[in-house]
């Protein structure tokens, strides 16, 4: 028997992007062939697809970890790496995707809707794509960025036209089995139904779906019984059918008191913003089990009271099928009327994709205090991605990163924030990438002539300042004056005269 699962935690890891390639064309009689390293391939995405053929999340309950392939690295001769294939995960229509904090990401309420739950990483550029008129033979390539890795919660909310609600053992499963081809479990003990059942009802020209929700008891909205866990399956239904047991033998129970308890629990259940509260939706009442003589008498007794409250009441029997035809046609008319009203309702707000604003900043510099002084944290999509693409074992790649950050305006913002040479700078959240800021690392990398993979700005060959050159000059002049004074003192002492007499 297939189990029903309507809420799972899904752990996803999208494919990482492939690294770019560093390569130089080598061919006979063509010593200056130039760079020909190809780009890395993008990692595969993980996509959720609303599939009408899927009715449960059981597949992801048993296998909650899903991954997609990585992109392949680039190769020489301008060959790009292969792209990682996307992984499509079919989910039932009506699945709501939430992040670990409970924030709703998307509601897959229509068949065929797609949502990229885990985007793949971006492939790195090879040195052929990084070449320019000033940087003719780059000795580095960009690394591929990692794909998304995390968890989401999949929550299924059944999409049906009519929801059957009532106490346990009221006959809801028997009713849906009598009205449709659904075959739920039926037994003579409470809480037989452990998960919602869906059935398709055909009543003349009317065709609609019915959801059988596990039985409600007093306190269900506070977590008692099974009702609270499955009341979300009633949210999307356009009408409610109260199934009331007229043949119950439990003391203290009767159709009117049962209805009051159910209405109280439905009223206490909060529906999402923008949806009609449960008690404001159309409601019918089905007085069940009238094949029992005492139950028929009780149904005839309470029916006027229920009708005086504005309910449309049907006396039915799921055993003899008495009253089911009239009930089916009435529900069909109600559903058609609700569909017509929904068609005339204003369309939901459309999602408008707007381009990036001209004055929108690409990053922010945030000073943070710490035990070892102030550090400056750089947060932004571009800087964080550029850092992830940089091979820090390659000096030329580090210089290229410095130039990109300088062109983006990071240097100017650090100065405005109060950073000085030697200040600690962190790019990205958390530990990020930490380095000591040196403003001299950020100019004219294209004009520096150095071997491939090297950047002379990273060597310890700092140019002397004017004051340092003046001090060195004065030191040399003082040394020469001291040497001349020493020679003069020797001559006055007669050292030079004795040498001249000996030579003569």
UniProtKB/TrEMBL annotation:
Compartment(s) of residence: Cytoplasm
The enzyme's E.C. designation: 3.6.5.-
Binding positions (Mg(2+)): 173, 193
The protein's enzyme class: hydrolase
OBG-type G domain span: 160-336
Pfam families cross-referenced by the UniProt entry: DUF1967, GTP1_OBG, MMR_HSR1
Cross-referenced InterPro entries: G_OBG, GTP-bd, GTP-bd_Obg/CgtA, GTP-bd_prot_GTP1/OBG_C_sf, GTP1-OBG_CS, GTP1_OBG_dom, GTP1_OBG_dom_sf, OBG_GTPase
The family this protein is said to belong to: Belongs to the TRAFAC class OBG-HflX-like GTPase superfamily. OBG GTPase family.
Record's subunit section: Monomer.
Protein's recorded name: GTPase Obg
Organism: Agromyces tardus
Phylogenetic placement of the source organism: Bacteria, Bacillati, Actinomycetota, Actinomycetes, Micrococcales
């Amino acid at each position: 028997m297939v189990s029903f699962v309507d809420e799972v935690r899904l752990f996803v890891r999208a494919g990482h992007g492939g690294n770019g390639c560093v390569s130089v064309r080598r061919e006979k009689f063509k010593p200056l062939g130039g760079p020909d390293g190809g780009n890395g391939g993008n990692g595969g995405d993980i996509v959720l697809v609303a599939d009408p053929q899927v009715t449960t999340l059981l597949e992801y309950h048993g296998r909650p970890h899903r991954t997609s392939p990585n992109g392949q690295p680039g190769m020489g001769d301008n060959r790009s790496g292969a792209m990682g294939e996307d992984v499509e995960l079919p989910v039932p229509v009506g699945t709501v995707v939430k992040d670990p904090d409970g924030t709703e990401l998307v509601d897959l309420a229509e068949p065929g809707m797609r949502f990229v739950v885990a985007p793949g990483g971006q492939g790195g550029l090879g040195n052929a794509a990084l070449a320019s008129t000033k940087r003719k033979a780059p000795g580095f390539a960009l690394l591929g960025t990692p794909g998304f890795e995390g968890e989401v919660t999949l929550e299924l909310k059944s999409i049906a036209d009519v929801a059957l609600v009532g106490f346990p053992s009221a006959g809801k499963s028997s009713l849906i089995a009598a009205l449709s081809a659904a075959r739920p479990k039926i037994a003579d003990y409470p809480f037989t139904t452990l998960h919602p059942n869906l059935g398709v009802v055909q009543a003349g020209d009317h065709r609609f779906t019915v959801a059988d929700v596990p039985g409600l008891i007093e306190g269900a909205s506070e977590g008692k019984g099974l009702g609270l866990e499955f009341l979300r399956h009633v949210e999307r239904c356009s009408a409610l059918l109260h199934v009331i047991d007229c043949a119950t033998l439990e003391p203290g129970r009767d159709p009117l008191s049962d209805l009051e308890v159910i209405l109280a629990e439905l009223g206490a259940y909060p529906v999402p913003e923008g949806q009609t509260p449960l008690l404001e939706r159309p409601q019918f009442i089905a007085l069940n089990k009238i094949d029992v003589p005492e139950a028929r008498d009780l149904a005839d007794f309470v029916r006027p009271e229920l009708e005086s409250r504005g309910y449309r009441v049907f006396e039915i029997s799921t055993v003899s099928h008495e009253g089911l035809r009239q009930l089916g046609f009435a529900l069909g008319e109600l559903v058609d009327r609700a569909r017509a009203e929904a068609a005339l309702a204003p369309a939901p707000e459309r999602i408008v994709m707007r381009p990036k604003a001209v004055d929108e900043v690409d990053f922010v510099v945030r000073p943070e205090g710490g035990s070892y002084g102030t550090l400056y944290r750089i947060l932004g999509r571009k800087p964080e991605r550029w850092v992830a693409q940089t091979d820090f074992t390659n000096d030329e790649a580090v210089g290229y990163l410095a130039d990109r950050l300088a062109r983006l305006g990071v240097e100017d913002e650090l100065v405005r924030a109060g950073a000085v040479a030697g200040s600690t700078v962190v790019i990205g959240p958390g530990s990020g990438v930490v380095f000591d800021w040196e403003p001299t690392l950020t100019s004219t990398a294209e004009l520096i002539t150095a071997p491939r993979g090297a950047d002379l700005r990273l060597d310890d060959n700092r140019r002397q300042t004017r004051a340092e050159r003046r001090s060195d000059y004065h030191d040399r002049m003082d040394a020469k004056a001291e040497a001349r004074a020493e020679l003069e003192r020797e001559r006055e002492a007669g050292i030079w005269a004795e040498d001249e007499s000996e030579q003569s």
